[in-house]
């Protein structure tokens, strides 16, 4: 419960001073400027008064209860004052002071120390190295933060890992006259966590939209859990930055090298229905719409305009953002036909032309709102000097207040018509400067609409032989290593994942016996722990058509890899299938990530792969497959038959089951898997599995 | 010469009235409000005075010379007044009036009529259905336009096909206090053309940046010519909208179907060095920087910040926009080490920390400007309440005025520090709301830097046998058709483009003779004008290994296509090459467009193709090849050797030469072309050529 943090009944400021440039002074001023609804106690052992407030030498001298303290004194003095706060029964301490974990080993030690002190007294630490919190709730009105953007009530709550980014988000809401509900930039996250804060916002009835800025997910599993709980009720908009600074974790397999921090964040967002944005501006623009507009039930948008060109831009942008242009019902067309001027165009976009007044423009919007073929409205409105623009705005405002479909608007105007913007915004219809923005916002809202409407996923559990797989795996337990391919194949078979017919041999004289079980043409592959990319080093010979060629290939390879003392895999050579790649990667504290892509160049060069988190539902698996750019290849091009997509879905789910069952599997690569049309089985041709030691 | 349009010595307003909602009144008011530097003559046969001006019944009644008239009377009355204007010796007539070409056949007739009248008198028509023009030159100060965004002097000139888009562009410059030079939204373009206007802006010494909004290029060749002339001197920023409304032209070949209107605009922009933007906001943001900042000499950017998070966003965005983070010289590091606070981070981004004052922040920027490893600077500046923010701004302003490297800035602040923004902007450093914007702007400037620095292209002319190719082509002249493959191959050979060894046969008994010249394995293909996509209809048999299989394949195919009475192509079957596709498409009035891409799925599904306009320079051809997403495939993956890129460049240039030599070639497809490593020749395996009738 973070009530005493976000709704403190009283605040003490340790480090308050009369120096207007000090953090303590600024926090005091911010609390005052925003009419904090409780008592404020400046703490300063040297001054008797801070501004007009009686100052106390220590929190222990305060005669009343203290919920929250703000601390901005020297880092080394923090432990001492925290002891006093603890004794006083303070509930939360916002530590603004820097010089902790972020400066290295010594700082980390100090940070651990202060958390320990706090917990001893049942107190919580917010920070250190943190900006603070805000809550615009008129019953509280707390601005316990040293930043400068003025606060006014609203329903958007913000939590930002970076204070600079948080400030930017607040600033742009402020500039368009939009309030916020709560704000928080939590610094080093030593105790009170981002996830707790999101959870708190999720439970706050007056928060309608949550904006999150993330640099690193400290507790991905906790985030997933909280987000899963919150997103069905209200949208979480996320900006994840630091996309390029986090280097690729150098691991050997394809799956490993592609699944980076970025990917984990992405699969968590997808799994939990968090809307990811890639710029601050896009996130702010969307938040404004979410804050007042209903969520669209579908993706059919209608554009209404009184000027041609910007509507064309709206069309371009809606289409490229994945929306569809609604087809007006014949009834709507009839109504509009009677309503608008002769020069107007009753189509989509509906161009009511610049001479349209309140009756034409407003009436058109009213008629469109009633059309069952329409899910959302994008208005373009230029204040033509020769019509009653305020009248139009007033009409739109009235309509906006009552609408159960989202309406967004681009207004082209200057300060002379400020009332136009005010009237429209007052109704809850967001006003943007550009048609492009309005279109992107509708696309984000439509995406969230899909999230809230998605059915309970269907999780299939296949009959598998877990204990046999376990016994194969157990042979290799104890250290981090890749296990031999024939064992990987055995494990796959236990989970009902078909593999190509294969035999393992160690010496040339085993060839004779091995080929009894196989049909030409064959493939010969080297199999050794130390050889990861076999093809590159000449460790694969394909399309071997007879015994003589096989013997020659074996001799050559045995000579080549003499030093590695390898085994060899002999398997049937398949032709004509489509190469796909499936992968999995363990995530500490989370379910594993699954990967799907087309093999070869598609995964290596074009990085055309999809990731989702286990357990995979049927919907997840289908979406993964459909979302790759090269999906058409699987559907069959130039008269080819489609591959059996249902088989691929099944194998993905079986793989998800396998890696979920065995947390010791660090990563797996089924590469390639040959997918064929329905009449022929999809089979794994090569596979690698790395386990982690106990 | 458009001087009398953009610098009129006098303006008459036909349709001026005392009704403040009339176009004529608004134009009059706009001229007055902006202190037009010449006489204004309202024309109105019914009123003696319009505002305080003496009105004239007709232009012919005006006692003095008239350069420009603005006409906003009923469309059917326009011809009559134009006759009068012509007699009076008016030089330009801005026709605001709508109801011309845009309303259909009748309107088009009227439009042609008014142009004819004008030309009879040596007068030019601007419009009709046009907004008007503006010129902020203090010597002229003409606002002959009925829009509302106030005008102030600047060096950005705008020409917009859509008035609504033009108004949006003006509006956002106005909002940040940025003036414009000239403005123009030209309506139906019946006479004065967009290209003339761009040319005029190009010649105007006080225009430093040109912004263009295009929906359709009426005269692409003219645009190319003008743009080629202008872009070496000043940047042309273009927004081309209507990307989705223009349907794909349904033509049979791959090349044809991919080369749409959009592509033509794109190749023209590329050829002439026009910078294309995909949103109004991006274009405006860039224009602001171009207007005052020097063009960067390279792509190495340094980020300076006093707050961490936004700088991380700047890094993400710079990298994804193709910029490089500069590596500071050791000398710079040494200087900064002494200058900044201990907590500061001397790296890239340089984090001077929030406590940095003018000396630290300003000094850092000064030192970085001197570093030869740095081409451009991106500053992030939050007005921390505890430092001298105005001092920092003043310092940055001083530095900005003298800098020969571009500096762009994100400032996080509120109105309290309005002076900070004013001081920075005054120096010419653009101030943006978001780090993302600043990064994108630098990327656009860097792109223009490359354009201005590009060397004269090297055009190679190969020795070819044009007359022989001509004689082959001439056999098919006279109608629109695809010519037989063996003739296409002959033409390619004339231009030194290697083709696979091929024989054409018509009857089964010719097989015997044909195979004498060929080596197995073979490919048998049907060859008939009516069969475009042979593979899909079973018209191709590959990898035929012996005579028996060949005869069987022939019988089957002959039976299958009996009705079409086809010929057959027998050619050697190649294995192991990389499939690429080359194409060309004729452009009416322009040089043809060339296409390059990887074959198969890459062209069909991923649309991974590049287009450039003939004639191709070596640089063009290399850039085309390198720009495809699947380029790594040509470079060789997993230990394969690279294909011979120089051979591909040569074939592209030879194809460019071929289609440039024969304007009757409507489209060509070399698909597939098999590219091999250096030791083996790259050859065309299949090709189609469509000619247009005389």
Q: Which key terms come to mind for this protein?
A:
homodimer; 694 residues; alpha/beta; Rossmann fold; 5 domains; seven-stranded mixed beta sheet; seven-stranded antiparallel beta sheet; 24 helices; 21% strand; flat
Brief synopsis:
Two copies of one chain form a homodimer. Helices cover 37% and strands 21% of the residues of chain A.
Care to describe what's here?
Two copies of one chain form a homodimer. Chain A has 694 residues and is α/β, with parallel strands linked by helices. Chain A folds into five domains: 1-131, Rossmann fold (3-Layer(aba) Sandwich); 147-292, Rossmann fold; 294-453, Succinyl-CoA synthetase domains (Rossmann fold, 3-Layer(aba) Sandwich), CATH 3.40.50.261; 502-572, ATP-grasp fold, A domain (Dna Ligase, domain 1, 2-Layer Sandwich), CATH 3.30.1490; 578-691, ATP-grasp fold, B domain (D-amino Acid Aminotransferase, Chain A, domain 1). In chain A, 37% of the residues lie in helices and 21% in strands. The first copy, chain A, has 24 helices and 31 strands. In chain A, the strands form six sheets. A seven-stranded mixed β-sheet of chain A has the order 9-8-11-10-12-13-14, sandwiched between helices. In chain A, strands 21, 26, 27, 28, 29, 30 and 31 form a seven-stranded antiparallel β-sheet that branches. In chain A, strand 6, helix 4 and strand 7 form a beta-alpha-beta unit. In chain A, helix 10 packs across helix 16 and helix 17 runs antiparallel to helix 18 (485-494). The radius of gyration of chain A is 31 Å and the shape is flat. The interface between A and B is large, with 76 and 77 residues.
